[in-house]
Amino acid sequence: MSSASRFKMRIYSPQWGHKDLYQFKKTKPLFYKALLTESISYPNYLKTYISSAWENVNTLNKEQVQNIFDELSKWISASEHDIN
User: Fold this and answer.
1) pLDDT value at 64 more than 80
2) Three-state secondary structure along the chain?
3) Contact 9, 38 (CB under 8 A)
């Protein structure tokens, strides 16, 4: 699978009071900037987990990688709910 494949994450936004859909592909680390712009806090080790997911993008199928991002979405949203 190409690292240019698109993935998505639904993350709770305290600014809007609901989950927003983020679609992305591996290019630049603008994802974190988008989270900060939306005032979304994320766990300290998120970058490590996302890096690990990208390392596996060529050995897993797209559904498996999307499942990883789905779990990360839940983790970010849960962290955001715990803060607010």
Assistant:
1) yes
2) CCCCCCEEEEEEECCCCEEEEEEECCCCCHHHHHHHHCCCCCCCCHHHHHHHHHHCCCCCCHHHHHHHHHHHHHHHHHHHHHHC
3) no
